Fold:
Amino acid sequence: MLQGSTGVGITSPVTVLPGVGKTKAEYYAKLGIQTLGDLLRHYPRAYENRGEICLLEDARPDAKSAVILTVGTEPRVVRLRSHKTFLKFRAFDDSGVCEVVYFNQDYLKNQFRLGSIFRFFGKVERHGKGFAMSSPVAEAWSESAQLPPLWAVYRMTDGISPKQIAKDVAMALELIGGRGEDPLPEHLRRRRGLCTRAYAERNIHCPENWQALATARRRLVYDEFFCFALGAAMSYRATKTHGAPICANGDIAALTAQLPYHLTGAQARAIEEIRRDMARDVPMSRIVVGDVGCGKTVCAAAAMLIAVQNGRQAALMAPTEILARQHYSDLAPIFERLGISCALLIGATAAAQKRRIKEALAAPDPDRRIAVVIGTHALLSDGVAFAAPGLVVTDEQHRFGARQRAALSDKNAHAHLLVMSATPIPRSLALVLYGDLDLSKIDEMPPGRQRVDTFVVDESYRERLNGFIEKQIGQGGQVYVVCPAVEEQELPPDELALCEISSEGSVREEQAPLKAAVSYAEELQKTFPQYRVAFLHGKMKSAEKDAVMHAFSEGTIQILVSTTVIEVGVNVPNACLMIVENAERFGLSQLHQLRGRVGRGTRKSYCVLVAGGTGTIGERSRARLATMRTTYDGYAIAEQDLAQRGPGDFLGTAADGSVRQSGGLAFRLADAGEDSATLTDATCDARAILKDDPTLQEYPALAALVQATFAVDAGLIS
Ligand code: ADP
Ligand code: MG
Structure:
């Protein structure tokens, strides 16, 4: 354990700190702080720059400043009628005299002796011919006293003052900081040029200077990534050791015989990997990643067949009802021809039908049992239990959080798990996102796929674009129009004296007016009164969404205006034109996903990216989008996205605000974008260390840190 000589360690409760009792501990719990380790990982959200001393007359009017003043008059307490008091005195430096005031803090009177010198930090205001400061932070100053130049600012909660947090952190550092072994193996620390953990913890909270702060931060960011990568990989290994149903009969000829095509080499390889996994008693944990349209569904079907052939049941969970229905209508006929019973279980399934399905899933008699069930997260609901669980498949995994994925496999602890995703993940992120899964990559498209011709245009093409829409629909095609979700623009907080650790250097882009789905659909309906225009957005009820999607796939709607909710694997082969408005707001990977919604049938298909913005900003975004004209490889696009926008698109939230990857990716200090080089180093080191020592037996301090941090940060326990 990471313990100091006092027997106190990172897992000790905060109540071991003097002055922290039950009440304070409850307040701390509100900040997610229960142990000393949690407290030390409650990193400052910003730092006050108190080390940069100026003269009163040079103080900026709009920000807090640090000044060194000598107390020039005896402090006087003034009582007001309202029982309030204020303490008042004058203090000076070489440039002027300042009136200093504190409200309701008479007890400070003795601190400010005539002639004593303080470093005051606060807003300096002009006051007559002189200056005034109201309730500044005061620290006794002398030439020899080493006052810290940077002062941590913490996220707070009621009941705990900033001072209290600073004091408790300092105490925690004293108790456990620097005691015991550095959790990071020495050879890694040296190779990556990192400071010790003790130095990092001290300097992130009480930095000696900016340099020390940067050094500290680099180490802690590394540790966050490193622990996450280790934790993800180890939690998988720990739970997946044995107990899975051995599915030795991996013959899928009955399936392939029914397909109107031959499997691609990549599909065959993925199926072979699945077949090998399922023949063992170690539960499979595999993800099949491949570009939209590469044919992942048939891999899932093969796995499901293998499970059923070996006397087991298989479940396929899709993120939306529309997608679940689509899988069901594609797969059920195939399975039924093989004499395999198949059911659809979604929220919209009638209650009586639901009950029958649940009974048939749990039926002890194999002849009366449903072997294959396809559905949405309705499959996770209570009362869904399998008599002989064999395989769980989740489709379009990026739409599910880690928790939901875990929920379905927890329900069927020993079942084989197969996950499918169309989001090509840059290599450096794969371990972070899918560290617990083995990877099958489908890097080959079925033959004869046509390319979706892509154009980048600006507003001046609007007329021509409308003409193009008309032409496509005139020829019997259908059109998607995607708009970004409208977001409130947030202004940066007016805290000029606060120096945020991660400097935000980005230029605020001038935006073209955002096309919001609903109003834009109305606009388009006016432009095209002869067609049916409908809209789709994330806030609609799922039944409404399904109805619209259904009408679109039936062809009764010609133009579908939508936020990115249609991004997920829906198949409308007749759709041949994808228009993306404000395309500059999307990541390239996301645009690639959107583009994958067309070109799924025999019609020649097009993608038009309408980029807003004017001047150089407009030019820059059009240049970025131009990649889409020439590149059709999802992985190449993903790598570009990572380089240009950071990994937010893969880790964070989507443009429509929905959470793409929940669980485990909210790092405290690290910014997977800014720190992507460190992310690559740390994940690579984690992989290497586990290869030789899968349980970290030789690194007890590291194992303890992973244990103390991973589960909390991964959202596995809250
Ligand atoms: P995704 O990987 O996006 O889930 P699907 O599994 O939905 O892709 O497949 C897309 C389309 O490609 C489907 O219509 C499917 O029938 C077809 N398909 C899959 N594999 C092949 C193949 N090897 N040859 C030809 N068409 C294929
Ligand atoms: Mg799919």
